[in-house]
């Protein structure tokens, strides 16, 4: 079918075009709101600025298609193949993108507010500057989760997103907004979260081994049982964060702010805690074996039963702190 015929038939009221073969078709700027193209072959199609609001594109082949600037709000793209597709600046608010393959896709500045991305594969995709507020990426069943491995999310807006169980191995989240996001059980190994905003984020049982959190803001975040071995978090802000049973062994936490943080049973073995602010922190049963606490501020901290025997305590401020033996240091 030629583009003109499709447009004429659609204008005449026909909407059912399931399974149509339209590879390489040019439909730039076409008005196809609500069209049914499920299972259609549109690979390499030029859909620049095309109106596809509420369109049914489930299981469609959109490999390497140009959807830059296209309007796909509330469209059904369930199971569609969007590998290497160009969705730069596309509007995908409330779209159904469950189980889609968008590997190596271009989604710079795309609007995905409230989109359903459960089970989608966005590995290697470029989502720099994209808005993913309130998106649903929640893992629903074992071994079936949203994949964002090596994905570029530089300065992306993920505030309030449900990302429970998402794979973010080596993802670029520099400067990303992750305020109040659900990041329970996520895989953030070796991810770059430099200067990311994680205020109030839920990171229980998250895996951040080898990640970079330099300058990140985790004020009030929940990091209970998180694994942060070998992380780089110099100058990060953990003010009032809940970090019970966290693993910070061998982490570089120099000059970080842990004021009033809850760190009971934390493992800080061989961590670099030089010049950190741990004033008023709760460190009951914390383990500081071979940790470097040079010039750290532990004033008014609770160190009941903490292991400090082999730690470097040169220049440490312990004024008003509850010491491991229960006495208050005056």
Automatic annotation (TrEMBL):
Keywords: Repeat. InterPro entries: 5peptide_repeat (IPR001646). Pfam families: Pentapeptide. It comes from the Bacteria. PANTHER family: THYLAKOID LUMENAL 17.4 KDA PROTEIN, CHLOROPLASTIC (PTHR47485:SF1). This is Pentapeptide repeat-containing protein. It comes from Microcystis wesenbergii Mw_QC_S_20081001_S30D.
